[in-house]
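Teaching note: in complex prediction, the entire set of molecules is handled at once rather than each chain in isolation. The prompt given to students was simply: 'Predict the structure of this complex.' The entities are:
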Amino acid sequence: MRVNPEDYGIPAEYQHWEGDRAEDHNGPFFFRCHDNGVHTLFRVQGHNCNGHGGLHGGIMMLFADFTLCIAGTRGDQDDSVITVTCNNEFVGPASDGDLIEGHGEVVRRGGSLIFTRCTLSTGDQTILTASAVLKRLRN
Amino acid sequence: MRVNPEDYGIPAEYQHWEGDRAEDHNGPFFFRCHDNGVHTLFRVQGHNCNGHGGLHGGIMMLFADFTLCIAGTRGDQDDSVITVTCNNEFVGPASDGDLIEGHGEVVRRGGSLIFTRCTLSTGDQTILTASAVLKRLRN
Amino acid sequence: MRVNPEDYGIPAEYQHWEGDRAEDHNGPFFFRCHDNGVHTLFRVQGHNCNGHGGLHGGIMMLFADFTLCIAGTRGDQDDSVITVTCNNEFVGPASDGDLIEGHGEVVRRGGSLIFTRCTLSTGDQTILTASAVLKRLRN
Amino acid sequence: MRVNPEDYGIPAEYQHWEGDRAEDHNGPFFFRCHDNGVHTLFRVQGHNCNGHGGLHGGIMMLFADFTLCIAGTRGDQDDSVITVTCNNEFVGPASDGDLIEGHGEVVRRGGSLIFTRCTLSTGDQTILTASAVLKRLRN
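The expected output is the structure of the full assembly:
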């Protein structure tokens, strides 16, 4: 699947991670790595919303997990991690049509475990804080 | 939408929570309340899977959130809660076609906050432990 | 140091874990392993209390960590684990003089990581739920 | 009790929070508020150490809880919060004699709940990341 970020109002320099059906079924999700971590983007659609008409907390966690894992692999498709723990605080709401931005960083990269954190926001409002421990898979 | 649990190999006495588009887009998810909590069920499909071909951790968290919130509302469609925190440990994997079972319980129901816990499993293997604090919305 | 559980109103069959100065400085803490996990006990003293006169949440977390690690090692002084993550929900209060009971269990014992959970209670009131991932140290 | 930070090699402009016996029994702990959060300091002593001779994880959580609550109250002795949840990742170790530094920030201050995060470090090494939801007590 060739996914075009501009179809979702997202700048063309953002990349799409290939091959994750669950993420594509809810997203697509986009990312861009920089020196200190990763910046991710996602446009909320109606099928991401809960019974209150807002972005579902579970979809926030799905996008947080994407952000944390991309931070852990630095967006390298040949690298591979699994999530061991993921803790989330739901700081505020988001709505259909909103652009959700994630900022992920690695706190420490150990031999087998990687400690990561992220925040999700829309506009200038933080909506989620999350932290994860990832385990590196040996290829 | 009338959703039939038997279409997913799930017993007819399980209920479907109406009106959550994000859950229906990934599920559907089913539940049955009992005296000490809630039992939930979900059949993994291909669009729930990650790049390794297993159930995506984010979808596990989405289903855990469903399980924890149904425990908090006791499945009452007139009751309403939002998730404040959700912590998850990824204990084991699950695969396309697996039946995922959730067991949710309320640890304490306070005036404004509800403390809940759940486990997800498939067969006799636990795949996720989670805990959440929910906030009651006044109707 | 020879520590006598009966000095703290705790049955004589409970054991003391030897050699942890931080735990002895705040406890002492006692444990008893059984087939499905561990039962721990601790008597609250004035120096465990916060400015509101109740058991300090940080001391609850210290005792939860003890309970989770004893569950992970099954109380074997020759075994050794470190805590990787510890998540805590503060469900209710406790007071000076209360007997705090912990119930810890292993959810899954992997090759390098152990998943554990516990609850702390006093009388019939749960005061804390916690979960941890532990890492086994090779001796 | 009049506590002098310089007795612990801590600059004189740091303040001591009065009236918490559990913290003084393990600390004392010191803090200094600034525009974007709080900076806290604590000198590790032998009675803070575990059986491996390092700073006990439970004492790290106690000091994280102090840091998170001071961030929530901005160090105002007339303000009061309780911790609802506290999640912790143990990123690295610390030793007897080390100076532990905490950096706490408020992510969002709501009407009844406050979302906070902190990191603990020694030298240039992060040793713990933590996040908490606090509940404001009405005076």
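Point out the following to students. Residues 1 and 18 of chain D are 8 Å apart (CA to CA). Residues 14-137 of chain D form a domain with the Thiol Ester Dehydrase; Chain A fold (CATH 3.10.129.10).
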